[in-house]
Write a structure and sequence with these properties.
Strand content: under 5%
Distance between the termini: 30 Å
Number of helices: 2
Shape: elongated
Largest sheet: none
Length: 49
């Protein structure tokens, strides 16, 4: 159910815990993106414009 709710705003008080990677709940896993771009020979900062 990744991305189906947020952990802020009106729903924030109802989120008591998150198991695993917080980014996997709220969207794409940023650490995974960093590792994958590194595997392709790029730095995550190469994506910053």
């Amino acid at each position: 159910m990744a991305g189906c709710f947020t952990i802020d705003g009106l729903g924030g008080p109802f989120v008591e815990s998150i198991e695993g990677d917080h980014h996997g709940v709220v969207g794409v896993s940023l650490p995974l993106v960093r590792r994958l771009t590194g595997a392709l020979g790029h730095s995550i900062t190469d994506l910053w414009v």
